[in-house]
Amino acid sequence: MLAIEIDKLVKQYKNGVRALDELSLKVKCGEIFSLLGPNGAGKSSLINILTTLYKPSFGKVTMLGKDLCREPAWVRTQIACVSQRVSIDEHLSLMENMIFQSRLYKVEKAAARKRISSLIDSFGLEQYLKYTVASYSGGVKRRLDIAMNMVSMPKILFLDEPTVGMDIVSRKAMWKIVRKIRDDFETTVFLTTHYLEEADQLSDTVCIMKEGHELAQGTSEKLKEYTRQNILRIGFADSKKAENSVNLLEEAHILPAISVREGSIFADAGDNRQTFEQVNKLLLEKQVPFEAIEIVQPSLEDVFMKLTYATGGISNGDN
Ligand SMILES: Nc1ncnc2c1ncn2[C@@H]1O[C@H](COP(=O)(O)OP(=O)(O)OP(=O)(O)O)[C@@H](O)[C@H]1O
Ligand SMILES: [Mg+2]
Question: Among 87, 166, 279, 288, which one is least packed by beta carbons within 10 Å?
Answer without folding.
Answer: 87
